[in-house]
Amino acid sequence: MKTKSPSTIDEYIQSFPKEVQTILTNVRNTIREAAPNSSEAIRYAIPTFIQGGNLVHFAAFRTHIGFYALPSGNTKFQKELANYKIGKGSIQFPLDKPIPFDLIRKIVKFRIQENTLKEKKTKAEQIETKIRRNSWW
Q1: Alpha-carbon distance 134 to 5, whole Å?
Q2: Are the C-beta atoms of residues 50 and 41 closer than 8 Å to each other?
Q3: Are strands 90-94 and 85-86 parallel, antiparallel or unpaired?
Q4: Which residues pair with 67 in a beta bridge?
Q5: pLDDT tens digits for 55-96?
Q6: Which residues form the YdhG-like domain (predicted)?
Q7: Which residues lie across from 81 on neighbouring strands?
Q8: Residue 100 pLDDT class (50, 70, 90 cuts)
Q9: Domains in the chain, start-ordered, CATH in brackets?
Q10: Taking the model in full, what pTM does it have?
């Protein structure tokens, strides 16, 4: 039987044991603090913060917290992430070690800058396309 996916981040967090709930709440609050203009959603069945597109995702697993900052977030902070298991766009923070909230904050702020630049570039490209369509030459 398939379990129902949570529809809110609160529901997601409440589905875990108390100790993990505390960690997830602290991760969520750290992201909120670093990205006060972001919105929250459940995407891919995990908590997601959105600001100019997907900002970051996080999730709990049996032995770690998964943090997903897209490949660029991992590349930018490669040196600081050396002690963690990382994938193309994922980071694993072991549950039996302190969660690096300062690093999470830095990554979120970097992703905000990245999404803001992407938005500006997209708007500039749209304006350029309109100008080309309306030009006489």
Answers
A1: 48
A2: yes
A3: antiparallel
A4: 58, 91
A5: 999 999 999 999 999 777 677 888 999 999 999 889 999 999
A6: 21-112
A7: none
A8: very high
A9: 9-134 (3.90.1150.200)
A10: 0.84
